[in-house]
What does this fold into?
Amino acid sequence: MMTVIAWLIGLSLFALMAILVVHVLVALLLIVPSWRIFERAGYSGLYALFHLVPVIGPFIVMAILAFGDWPNGEGKPAVPR
Amino acid sequence: MMGVDLAAFLGLFGLTSAFAAIALVLAAWMCWRIADKAGLPGWSGAVAILLTLTGIGSVVSLILLWVFAFMRWPRDGAARVGAIGGPTATPPGAAAGAPTAPAPTALALPPVSPPRVLADRRGWSLAGGGVTLAFDDGRAAYTLTGEGSGTAGELVVPDPSVGRPHARLLTAAGRIGLEDLGTPGGTFIDGARLLPSHGPRDITSVRAIKLGNVELALSRT
It folds into this structure.
């Protein structure tokens, strides 16, 4: 019985680790371009790490970019031709 | 019992579907705003998100995110002085090791129309912070600095927040450009921060620039 429980716990931990690794890998695919977008907008690229927050992370990132005032200017070309 | 389970399952499914729909609309709205801020049509951001509704899934949205991050944004489309035939030489007063913009390449630059050479041959003046600096296109480049070192082409703005040197003014064909040299005080064009990575920006039509804490009004003399 104990062997079965230990086996189940081990399997659960393995599944948890696998989910975590996949989550971080997927987050990395989002963090790299988001880091650049934040820097081009004038923010610190560290904001892109919000992608590591499960489920709502990308929404936090989008909200910062969508509703914040970009320090480097936004909309039309910053300087008229 | 089976019917209750099925109802609960369907209820949960309906709830998650509602959340998914709200999340999708919210994401599309935010991406609309983000694309708009980058100077792109807002609908392109929304469409990028709504593509997840199609059979191709969210992979395309991910690819579009990468494209958006590394593409040229229309917001950055201000004419570069270098692109209109302006000077790129480093003036004598520029600090050694100061950050410089990467040389514009054919890929990085938008297709530019033939340069519009202005007939106006008047000079310019920068006024503010207790000083008035007059200059013309007699020199290809001027250095804006907080302290003069006796080098020709220096425009001195005596203020502790202004770097030594702080920025570079470039003149070409009746137009004027500004390039930040990476000082902590920062350079601003009509309130927007100019970074060294932006390279020279055309400020011919700009009314005010800011060096550190000093606001300077740009006008023709």
User: Anything to note?
Assistant: The radius of gyration of chain B is 25 Å.
